[in-house]
């Protein structure tokens, strides 16, 4: 028989789905150009096309931070659960 360790399939949890959505949202928002190719409503004289894209810079940062914090919490929970099962 083989001495290779047993490989378990990846686990899809609700937290991991939220992480994926946090990371996917900025891409979808920026790649769907037809949703923001207009000039109105203008914000302090800046056409919608520009301020919409600029708004996504801090939003993307925030969503990435949220995804990272959720990932760290998920990894800590998996590690502690694994250590508890090993004991």
UniProtKB/TrEMBL annotation:
Name of the protein in its database record: DUF3311 domain-containing protein
InterPro entries linked to this entry: DUF3311
Species name: Streptomyces populi
Source species, domain of life: Bacteria
Leader sequence segment: none
UniProt keyword terms in alphabetical order: Membrane, Transmembrane, Transmembrane helix
The organism's taxonomic lineage, starting at the top: Bacteria, Bacillati, Actinomycetota, Actinomycetes, Kitasatosporales
Keyword Transmembrane in record: yes
The keyword Endoplasmic reticulum appears for this protein: no
Transmembrane segments: 17-37, 49-71
